[in-house]
Amino acid sequence: MNGKLLILSLALATDLSIAMAQNPIEQTAGRTLLGEFAPRFAELNDDVLFGEAVWNDTTFDLHDRSLITISILLGKGLVDASFRSHLEMGRRHGITRTEIAALLTQAAFYAGWPNAWAGFRMAKEVWADDGAASDKERFQQQTIFPIGEPNTAYARYFTGNSYLARISDSQIPFANVTFEPRCRNNWHIHRAAFGGGQMLICVAGRGWYQEEGRPAQPMLPGTVIHIPANVKHWHGAAADSWFSHLAFEIPGENTSNEWLKPVADEAYDALP
Asked: What's the rounded Cα separation, in Å, for the pair 123 and 103?
């Protein structure tokens, strides 16, 4: 790897880590309710429990950390206002109605049937309008990046609906591209005389990437795809899942995109 590409890779990693660190948990309830009466407790609640030490630690994502916390509170029988607050927080962190129902059902055998009944009563209220939410809105809860607006500028190169959100326009520009189930872009080539190509990082859902002459490769959250310049390929969502990836255009000389034929339904439907 030459010096220019090494600097580029480091910059990409830095830019992505900054983006992934967006929206940290910020808590002020301790200081609001107990700041004068118990300032030390308020500080520990806001800055330690909900600060860097626990809730903003990256070992677990916020979705899983909410599931853990809800399970512990239920197990201790603390089905109170605090429990409801954590249910509401968990929903904001992407816990679905199906997931909370499964969690409470399993917890009933360990935490007690009455506790589970109390938990279900609150959960039904918190997720009361979940059935009215669109698939797109529910998918948005799974990712920290915005889905963005309909990708009308490139719609003619896609089968199905896609959405585009520009994440950064400085240093190394990149965007979040979201595909509805079965949506995929046409076969295409990123042309370049030197350098160029593209890097994809899956951030939510399940999708596919395929180069001409090679088997399709599944993409799951965390999957990184390096696409060399001048290689024919396509990418898009799985048939039963929404899908989002970050798309980084790698700088090069005399770069352009060459759009080709759509991916045939027969070939797409044959994917495992």
From this structure: 11
In SS3 terms, the chain reads as CCHHHHHHHHHHHHHHHHHHCCCCCCCCHHHHHHCCCCHHHHHHHHHHHCCCCCCCCCCCCHHHHHHHHHHHHHHCCCCCHHHHHHHHHHHHCCCCHHHHHHHHHHHHHHHCHHHHHHHHHHHHHHCCCHHHCCHHHHHHCCCCCCCCEECHHHHHHEECCEEEEEEECCCCCEEEEEECCCCEECCEEEECCEECCEEEEEEEECEEEEECCCCCEEECCCCEEEECCCCCEEEEECCCCCEEEEEEECCEECCEEEECCCCCHHHHHCCC
Q: Is the pLDDT assigned to residue 120 strictly greater than 80?
A: yes
Q: Closest Cα partner for 216 from 237, 194, 245?
A: 237
Nearest to 25 by CA among 49, 56, 54: 56
Q: Same CATH fold, 149-269 and 24-133? A: no
Structure tokens at 242: 């929404």
pLDDT at position 5, please? 44
Task: Return the CATH number of the domain spanning residue range 149-269.
Answer: 2.60.120.10
Residue keyed to tokens 């309909």:
150
Tell me: the pLDDT tens digits for 159-216?
A: 999 999 999 988 888 999 999 999 999 999 999 999 999 999 999 999 999 999 999 9
The single-letter code of the amino acid at 139 is: F
Residue 133 pLDDT > 50: yes
Q: List the domain boundaries for the chain.
A: 24-133, 149-269
CATH code matching the domain that covers 24-133, chosen among 2.30.30.40, 3.20.20.370, 1.10.357.10, 1.20.1290.10:
1.20.1290.10
